[in-house]
Amino acid sequence: MRGLNDFHSALLVCAALHLTVCLMVAGDQQYTKVYADDDHVAAAADQSRGREGEHKQSEGESSKPRVQLPEKPNFIILFGDDMGYGDSNMYGHPTTSTPHLSQMAREGMRFTQFYSAAPVCSPSRASLMTGRYFPRGGVYEEPKNNKTTGMAVFGTSGSKGMLLSEVTLPQALKPLGYVSGMVGKWHLGIQHPYHPVSRGFDSYLGCPFNLKGCNSTIVNGSASTPNCMVFENYTITSQPADMLNIDARYVQNVKDFITTNIDSPFLFYFSSYHTHLPQFASSQYINTTKRGLFGDALAQFDGDVGEILSFLKEKGIANKTFVVFTADNGPQLASGLLAGEQGPLKCGKGTTYEGGVREPAVMWWPGVIEPNTLSYAVASTLDVFPTMLSLAGGKPSENITIDGFDLTELITGQSKTGPRDHMFYYSGKYLMAARLNEYKAHFYTMGSHCAGDYPDADCHSGTVLQAHDPPLLFDLAHDPKERQPLAAKQFSAVLDSINALVAKHNKTMTFGPPQVGIDTSKQNFPCCNPSCTPRPTCCKCGS
User: Fold this and answer.
1) d(Cα 298, Cα 312) in Å, to the nearest integer?
2) Active site residue 187
3) 433 touches 352 (CB < 8 A)
4) Distances (CA, A) of 91 to 47, 82, 257, 303, 340
5) Which residues share a beta bridge with 424?
6) What is the DSSP letter of 55?
7) Which of 40, 187, 195, 274 is catalytic?
8) Which of 7, 11, 180, 336 is deepest in the core (most CB within 10 A)?
9) CA-to-CA distance for 143 and 133, rounded, in angstroms?
10) pLDDT in tens, 468-511
11) Catalytic residue among 14, 22, 121, 528
């Protein structure tokens, strides 16, 4: 009866979303391909019941002929900010407007189990740039007491950044002949040694940190609030920053970079502020969606994506350019209607529940990635570094531990399941949880100030760090919202396997000295005229 009821539920979902094909085998409850005739791309069926892991494609290697890959392809990373798993049309949101992301998914591979390596900004970006769990690079602070984990981000006036011993993706690609550019949020250090250009990028345009703590055309704080700035490489060209027109500048910067380097292999990191608070959009997108200011900001990001992908096609290099879209962490639920939506997952930003780290993700490469592919493989931002490095013909240094996996066989259709069967969930210095196949064990849980008064108390900042022995165990294939803990005695073999996995990981895990929260003097705040007083409120220049 359960299979029949699930079949009827699936048919209702299909009818509601006007899907042209939606087939379900009731016996094993596994969907075949789903094609949508609107912006929804295979989203609602697996979201309506939250069974992403259950709908696995065939195991083992594929019989698909190996694709001839271009030598030294181009790479683009499209990175969102505080974007929830359930925010876009392709993951089932009914009022969001993201047609370009939906088209990207129709032309590429959409993931249902893609993870950021951290639930907040700086550490997640460190892992994206290095392919390593962020504590290795010191992107945390020393826990203040036994109720905190040390999870933290680099502020606007710290003197440190991600450890200089960490090798970034542009640094790894440079000896292979790649040129690299970046726009937007860096958040891995603001002083000269930690600046994006110092960490391997050949060009940089943007404000390197969060926009909440500084004045701009979207934030008008008190008289003591410093001014946001826009860097062009190492030079501050405007302070305060005009953020309402920044997206157009960023997109044009991408186009100029591609045009200049069209005959060379390149990496471009498009690191958007959307949809982190404060929400904003240009005049082209403001008041254009049914979802208010958050929807407008997301539509702005979607429009940026559309312009970039269209430009690749226009220049005739789409088939030699591998593009990855994802985001840094889940939504800041405390912001209510100005926050993102985690969909069928538990909690959001700041927590190591699924809503804090499972992210929307699409990989796009015309002629290489089969269009309209829905992948249930477990993958992560950690995997971007080794995948791109491998495609470029490089290898990681033998003396550096890489925590990511090469996804080449997955994206080319040679493998259906991919190389990753596990994931570790860190918050600061604490290994909070571990996933092996469909099972996730929480050794610790903790809420976050990012949740505010969200109805689920497990997410709240008042829910302090709590150890679990035995761990809380969930089957994410059936319970992605982590509501029904499994009986430890009944699943002792599963816990034994997870504990063995953790023990093996711990033998290779090294923690760099913590770099967050060190020397946070206001004198460290970037200033276009550093001799002015009083700093940093006197810092003003440009138009």
Assistant:
1) 22
2) yes
3) yes
4) 7, 16, 31, 17, 13
5) 434
6) S
7) 187
8) 180
9) 18
10) 999 999 999 999 999 999 999 999 999 999 999 999 999 999 99
11) 121
